[in-house]
Amino acid sequence: MSTSITTEAVMDYDEAMARFDPVMGLEVHVELHTNTKMFCGCPTTFGAEPNTQVCPVCLGLPGALPVVNEKAVESAIRIGLALHCEIAEWCRFARKNYFYPDMPKNFQTSQYDEPIAFNGYLDVELEDGSTYRVEIERAHMEEDTGKSLHIGGSTGRIHGADYSLVDYNRAGIPLIEIVTKPMVGAGERAPEVAKAYVSALRDLLRALDVSDVKMEQGSMRCDANVSLRPKVGGDPLSAEQLAVPLGTRTETKNVNSLRSVERAVRYEISRHAAILAAGGSILQETRHWHEDTGVTTSGREKSDAEDYRYFPEPDLVPVAPSRELVESLRGTLPEPPGLRRRRLQGEWGYSDLEMRDVLNAGAVELIEQTVAAGASPAAAKKWWLGEPSRRANAQAQDLVTYAAEIGLTPAHVAELDGLVTSGRLNDSMARQVLDGVLAGEGTPTAVADARGLELVQDDGALEAAVDKVIEANPDVAAKIRDGKVAAAGALIGQVMKEMKGQADAGKARSLILDKLQ
Amino acid sequence: MNPDLTRATAAELADALAQGTVSSVEVTQAHLDRIAAVDGQVHSYLHVDGEGALAAARAVDERRAAGESLGVLAGVPIAVKDVMTTKGLPTTCGSRILEGWIPPYDATVVRHLREAGMPILGKTNMDEFAMGSSTEHSAYGPSRNPWDLDRIPGGSGGGSSSVLASFQAPLATGTDTGGSIRQPAAVTATVGTKPTYGGVSRYGLVALASSLDQAGPCGRTVLDTALLHAVMGGHDPLDSTSIDAPVPAVVEAARRADVKGLKIGIVKELGGEGYQPGVRARFEESVQLLVDLGAEVVEVSCPNFDYALAAYYLILPSEASSNLAKFDAMRYGLRVAPEGVDAPSAEQVMAATRDAGFGPEVKRRIILGTYALSSGYYDAYYGSAQKVRALIAQDFARAFEQVDVLVSPTAPTTAFKLGDKLDDPMAMYLNDIATIPANLAGVPGMSLPSGLADEDGLPAGIQILAPAMQDERLYTVGAALEGALIDRWGGHLLDRVPELTATSEPKGA
């Protein structure tokens, strides 16, 4: 059975913004990359054979009991601290009860009214350089569910599927859910703010080294709540506007890229606006985002009637992190990404525009490591933002992932740059070497050796080539003798051709000028 | 030692095994023969593992022959309540929904038994998921009381109590959520201890109510029970609620058997009206014996115990409704397709399976618990019950400021007739009125025989309660009283249990 997606009416975004004030709430789930699961000793490796990383505990077998992963608690506290949250002195896990085949116990061990971290904020830098402060409601610990794979049917969703398979490898992976307070006052920039928040959060979590934060692999997932209320006046932050009660929200799931966060919020704003403008009312429900078509469709209805029957998890003792532990974890926090970016920009001497290119390419860490390996900041930027970025883009991958998969390391790039600065390669040869590295032919030195790429250091051969070219072009030589130095370019080209490209163009130029002046 | 190996105590068997006068194979075989002869009438076992038990017995005999140093109970066979997972052996919890399930892992308690070299004879019957006081809620039929086969052996651990009272095993394991070790012990003239909550690992115990469940030892004497307690107990890193402390010195306490100078409190609220006269008479005699032995006895009041049953029947069903959610036909156990539905959804299969696989008492408690946890009712029910629970713990704390141990009758009555209370859940629940407070507060409790009630000639039990982590007190008081009672009776009470006539139709295992 194929489901056709009915196109719903949407209002032009600018018109929607003229009439309504959007309010968002973002819930981000982050899988921690601890070695073991939240409540058992099973490994957490991504992409293992289905149902090979399971045990009585994460399969929810009768009699099995959970034990809290202390590393996960520490990661949760570090995330809380990095988000300027208060850390609970005493908190408990709770059971969230509902039936679903991918949940082994038919309850999820989560936290309810006693989160480990609460009341924080994250300052998010927008494209124009201004800052939006996202207030954080809470960050709590929970376990991931298994993963259902619906076979048959056209949508990959459960409806219409012939059968479903469940992989419990993911069941019990530690998750941190980070929930914002209602994000008000963003006005027409709401979609941009949403994307910038998720992006900043991703940078922060990456800097904390607590998660792989790969949205495409599901290790970071975003649910976007959106509601509209009537617009009052022009200032989204005015007291009058903030006093208007919130509208009914929808929760859009399956938003699995930064670009989708922005698009999904924008779409929901336009969709809500069309319904409200036509006198309709918003149904409080879960929506599914469709990356390909750029629309959301209705999921299961999520009303307040849904009752998870939370109660404190009796199989676990309370988590009571000592203040000493919290302070020692505070000492492990990395430099905040925003400060770090400004520091690196200064150290590297990049212009604002250059830094933005580097950020957009996701190349900050790569460049940092390349510089640490000995390359100049300018060279590091030139190489990473060249061919590797182009190819990563073409494959819709982020640069870090692409480089990791292809096996291109900062050490390689530094080595490549070293081959140029030492005079062994010129730029065009270096590009050929990089192609070789990207093709998996080995390290830059190995590729240069294998392809026989090396500037000819034998001045005799170069001099002979220069003499030959001068003799063959008496008219050009005459111009140069008359002081038209620019004409040397034509001769240099021919010399390089004579040398089959393996000569230092600068050296050829000075030889030509020496001989003709 | 009694030449009939099945009549010997575990302590006697342990000595004989250590001295080499009997082998574990002989002891184990004697019990398997007894099982074959009488379990058709008593129905204590859901599964008998003769082959596995004999293999374990042979292994321990070989180790002993090789001069290895072994634990005290090495070679003494044991029966395991079917609520504990046993690798390679069926574990049904008395429920259809787990029919055919073979766990891939051992409960920590079972691992302790195996490591101690104790052959596991089989798995004992129980009320489904330990919900009940009679074993009548077992999906596989009730066990019977060896004192009168028309009567209940107590519950939920009636399989383990009847196994001991019919000499089909010298020791058995139990679990006690509201009295499931102590009440069966009381009605069969056997001994059972619910240790301090966290004293014995819960890992591998199929959970009824996580905050109340506690595994413990069952035996025919206080010393036997202590020997098993020492094997079962101890810290388990797989159970977050396990106490990180050594097992209390229960065996030494049982051998000490001394109450001189101890202050013993009679709980005012656990006695009097509603308690059978014969049960009260035996209890009062036991108290007098304790005085004769040198204890000081006072009455103490625990006023909030009056609310214990109500609080218990909110907390237990709430936790049970969540603990039993995992039985959904998706991964193991029974799977039933709904009738008249083509290509049923997972949810429809779950519903049909739970409908077919759970018995009425389990369904009743799941519904109660689901209701009690519902939004809007949570504070009134679950929240209030937790407050009562705190008050009961406070009552215990105050009482233990005045006395060293508390005593009460274990159950208000002797064993009732099969079927008598099956249609009256409230009457069934009231049987646990004296045992429930200890579970709510997490304190340890023991039941031992106090004698036979005059009006029906059936066993009654006395309960001893101690502060948390003070399990030794149960054993020193229990052993002292047991000694005095046996002197008075001129032998163990179980010597008077009617002889079961061997049948030629052993129950198929």
From TrEMBL, chain A:
Keyword field contains Ion transport: no
Top-tier EC class: ligase
Pfam families: GatB_N (PF02934), GatB_Yqey (PF02637)
Subunit structure, as described in the record: Heterotrimer of A, B and C subunits.
Record has Protein biosynthesis as a keyword: yes
SUPFAM superfamilies the record matches: GatB/YqeY motif, Glutamine synthetase/guanido kinase
Domain spans labelled Asn/Gln amidotransferase: 365-516
Protein name, per record: Aspartyl/glutamyl-tRNA(Asn/Gln) amidotransferase subunit B
GO process annotations (BP): glutaminyl-tRNAGln biosynthesis via transamidation; translation
A single GO molecular function term of this UniProt record: asparaginyl-tRNA synthase (glutamine-hydrolyzing) activity
Protein function: Allows the formation of correctly charged Asn-tRNA(Asn) or Gln-tRNA(Gln) through the transamidation of misacylated Asp-tRNA(Asn) or Glu-tRNA(Gln) in organisms which lack either or both of asparaginyl-tRNA or glutaminyl-tRNA synthetases. The reaction takes place in the presence of glutamine and ATP through an activated phospho-Asp-tRNA(Asn) or phospho-Glu-tRNA(Gln).
Enzyme Commission identifier(s): 6.3.5.-
InterPro entries per UniProt: Asn/Gln-tRNA_amidoTrfase_suB/E, Asn/Gln-tRNA_Trfase_suB/E_cat, Asn/Gln_amidotransferase, Asn/Gln_tRNA_amidoTrase-B-like, GatB, GatB_Yqey_C_2, Gln-tRNA_amidoTrfase_suB_CS, Gln_synth/guanido_kin_cat_dom
NCBIfam families for the chain: gatB, PRK05477.1-2, PRK05477.1-3, PRK05477.1-4
Keywords recorded for this protein, A-Z: ATP-binding, Ligase, Nucleotide-binding, Protein biosynthesis, Transferase
Family per similarity comment: Belongs to the GatB/GatE family. GatB subfamily.
Catalytic activity: L-aspartyl-tRNA(Asn) + L-glutamine + ATP + H2O = L-asparaginyl-tRNA(Asn) + L-glutamate + ADP + phosphate + 2 H(+); L-glutamyl-tRNA(Gln) + L-glutamine + ATP + H2O = L-glutaminyl-tRNA(Gln) + L-glutamate + ADP + phosphate + H(+)
From TrEMBL, chain B:
Catalytic residues (positions): 81 (charge relay system), 156 (charge relay system), 180 (acyl-ester intermediate)
GO CC annotation: glutamyl-tRNA(Gln) amidotransferase complex
E.C. code: 6.3.5.7
UniProt catalytic activity: L-glutamyl-tRNA(Gln) + L-glutamine + ATP + H2O = L-glutaminyl-tRNA(Gln) + L-glutamate + ADP + phosphate + H(+)
Molecular function per GO: ATP binding; glutaminyl-tRNA synthase (glutamine-hydrolyzing) activity; transferase activity
Keywords assigned by UniProt, alphabetized: ATP-binding, Ligase, Nucleotide-binding, Protein biosynthesis, Transferase
SUPFAM superfamilies for the chain: Amidase signature (AS) enzymes (SSF75304)
Domain Amidase: 26-474
InterPro entries in the cross-refs: Amidase, Amidase_CS, Amidase_dom, AS_sf, GatA
BP term (GO), one: translation
Subunit field text: Heterotrimer of A, B and C subunits.
PANTHER family: GLUTAMYL-TRNA(GLN) AMIDOTRANSFERASE SUBUNIT A, TRANSAMIDASE
Job description of the protein: Allows the formation of correctly charged Gln-tRNA(Gln) through the transamidation of misacylated Glu-tRNA(Gln) in organisms which lack glutaminyl-tRNA synthetase. The reaction takes place in the presence of glutamine and ATP through an activated gamma-phospho-Glu-tRNA(Gln).
UniProt protein name: Glutamyl-tRNA(Gln) amidotransferase subunit A
Organism of derivation: Intrasporangium oryzae NRRL B-24470
Annotated gene: gatA
